Amino acid sequence: MKLGFVSAILDEYTFEQVVGFASENGIACVEMACWPRGKSERRYAGVTHIDVETLDKRKADEINEYLAKKNVSISAIGYYPNPLDPNLEQRAVFIEHIKKCIQAAKLLGLSNMNTFIGKDPLSPISENMEQFKKVWPDVIKFAEDHGVKVGIENCPMYFKDEWPGGKNLAASPKIWREMFSLIDSDCFGLNYDPSHLVWQMMDYVKPIYEFKEKLFHFHIKDAKLYKEKYDDVGIFAAPLEYHAPKLPGLGDVDWGKVVSALTDVGYNGPMVIEVEDRAFENTFEDKLTAIRLSKQFMNQYVL
Q1: In the chain, which end has fewer C-beta atoms inside a 10 angstrom radius, N or C?
Q2: Straight-line distance from the first to the last Cα atom of the chain, in angstroms, rounded to the nearest whole number
Q3: Rounded to two decimals, what is the model's pTM?
Q4: Residues of the chain under the 50 pLDDT cut
Q5: Structural domains present in the chain
Q6: Exposed, middle or buried: residue 1 (CB in 10 Å: 0-12, 13-18, 19+)?
Q7: Helices 173-182, 125-146: crossing angle, 10 deg rounding
Q8: What are the pLDDT digits (tens) for 158-183?
Q9: Alpha carbon distances (Å) from 24 to 4, 48, 92, 292, 302
């Protein structure tokens, strides 16, 4: 397994600075944020460390030469919009950029592109699944044609205002089973993040065994569930009212059990640190420290 980090937290850095920081700190890989250039729609979005809109073979060769020089690799192209947005024009924009990210991955010689399934939060799961069947077979066929694996992160995208159901359908093992039965493809799998199951009060180790063939990529992020807050607001409250994303080791994930399960199933892909801990975002130096601390903690299990 290769230890890395998600570049989105270093929004002030250029691509070269991100790779340089990884190299200087002995970090093997980076998931590169590849959003369209423009205004961010939410935190950790809108970061463009590789502009896939303008990427060509010459630029891809330059990127790969720089990576080789710094002894750092790209674990995946990362872009996380809402491809099932009820606004069909906006949905089309998101899907088109996902395809450009897939093309960029191929151009760079990469095997992974990570994203969300998307969801209309005001529609029931059954209706969202019907939209999934309309949208995603074409996207995965496009990925197959380019030899790129699409890893779906399992974040529900429900924090404060995404009532009542969040903006990402792929939030639970039951839904993953249905998705993978509808699209049976070696290019369709998971970018697994155990923290999103913690605050849903679900088993975050068991799915590693069941979905071992679908583990394409792995996010290292922790979550702390505040029971006293939960007891005060209950299950119908917005999730950030009773939990918080944390650095690995500062939340409720048992990382020894997680890595043990990954070794049991033979996972040998990237494990990348995703910093979303507000306690480490007061300054840019805090963000750099967060990555360094996370690496130091995870080096108990992954080098």
Answers
A1: C
A2: 8
A3: 0.96
A4: none
A5: 2-298 (3.20.20.150)
A6: middle
A7: 50
A8: 987 777 889 999 999 999 999 999 99
A9: 13, 21, 40, 11, 18
What is the C-alpha separation between 91 and 193, in angstroms, rounded?
A: 24
- The model's pLDDT over 197-241, given as tens digits with 9 standing for 90+, comes to 999 999 999 999 999 999 999 999 999 999 999 999 999 999 999
As a whole number of angstroms, the distance between CA 62 and CA 66 comes to 6
Report the distance separating Cα 55 and Cα 137, nearest Å: 25
Residue the block writes with tokens 């099932």: 84
| CA dihedral sign of residues 251, 252, 254, 258 | negative
Tally the residues of the chain: 303
Cα separation, 292 vs 136, whole angstroms: 37
Pairing mode, strands 188-192 and 149-153:
parallel
